[in-house]
Model the fold of this input.
Amino acid sequence: MTTAATIQHSFLLLLLLLPFLAAHDYREALSKSILFFEGQRSGKLPPEQRQAWRKDSGIRDGFDSGVDLSGGYYDAGDNVKFGFPMAFTVTMLSWSVVEFGSNMPSDEIRNAAVAIRWGTDYLLKTISQPNRIFVQVGDPVEDHNCWERPEDMDTARTVYSVTPDNPGSDVAGETAAALAAASMVFRDIDNNYSDTLLHGAFKAFQFADTYRGAYSDDPAIKPGVCPFYCDFDGYQDELLWGAAWLRRASGKDDYLNYITTNGKILGAEDTVNEFGWDNKHAGINVLISKEFLEQGKLYSLQSYKASADSFMCTLIPESSSPHVGYTPGGLIYKPGGSNMQHVTSIAFLLLTYADYLSNSSQTFNCGGVTVGPESLRLQAKRQVDYLLGSNPKNMSYMVGYGDHGNYPQRIHHRGSSLPSVSDHPEHIRCKEGSPYFNSSEPNRNVLVGAVVGGPGKDDVYEDDRADFRKSEPTTYINAPLVGVLAYFAANSGAGADATLAKHTNYIK
Done:
């Protein structure tokens, strides 16, 4: 290559790298991503509540059913407590701390542990009765017909549960995963609580495996969970997911044997380039690969490593594998709503797998392309940087983060859009909130740290409260993002960015 051609090639490469190397304050974003969960709390709020515009809500949840189901999280911009995505949120918050807690400042580890415990305290309540797991509080049809603050809600707080006759292996398996993962977080913080969580995980998994079935197949539950959080992909992945986390948390060979003997039966070899509250396969393969990479003698787990490699290859543009979609600006894009849930969960898996490979000094092949840890980290960085503002609109998709307030102002969120109880003590009934929903004014309360569903496949975002697919935040968008931001908060700066910049073999 001539000198002129070399200079031109270097210049073009620099242009390609500019979005990756944009300066972002990952430490600030990390803090705000955790703070978000305080805005989603249900129940009696503690004195140290930092999102001060929120007040107590759902105090009597479960009372009419003879059980205390106060606490936990609202999943998004509504006032329903959906157990399936809530348990996944707790699993991912816990996995974020398990993998990347060593990168977090001590105050943020503490804040993350508080956020996890707010979820696990509730999940323990859901398994408090024998042969019954409570999976949801609130009638979503009635709730979605109103625009009112959680502090005011007067819609039915219907309680839904699964039993041996009407099982729910999906929610029970995810609850087991959440409690097991959280037990690892609290092992060095509160050992007694950690033991309680692990015991609860054993109990939830036994129920999930003994009484098999999808919770949304129950005619009594289906109208309350579908189409919102139907189990579209089956309960089998949650059984493997729960077993994998119990193996990781307890070290018991019983769960290793379960994984190896039930893998094919439960679809472990399904190649699915998706990871989220409904489909766990990519996460299962990455999680289980850790043990194979660290102990190569466990050949029974080799297929999980191969599936994890295949998933990663779908994220490498030069790979011959079928690829996930990208927007023109470079954001991972999947059709449907709340696209940022895919962005944050996949970025988390990229970083986690990169660490597993790095710790075992391994790479993998995608056709003729050799991929190492830094290539995966670079791809994850591209996604998080886009989310924080390195995108065609130069807009942060995290509320409260970004220059000159250039972040979503009209998010689809009842509590954020309506005046707080402090400013408007009078009750705002179901339809009385409609003028606030229809208003073009910015939301009254800033839900700091909330990440919205994000732009469409054309990188366009209109900041429209009514367009919930783009403007609604969810807990399961933020949960994996906590780990991603923790990694980059500890591994950013000129030296780290220069290292990433060397690994561009798959960027065209």
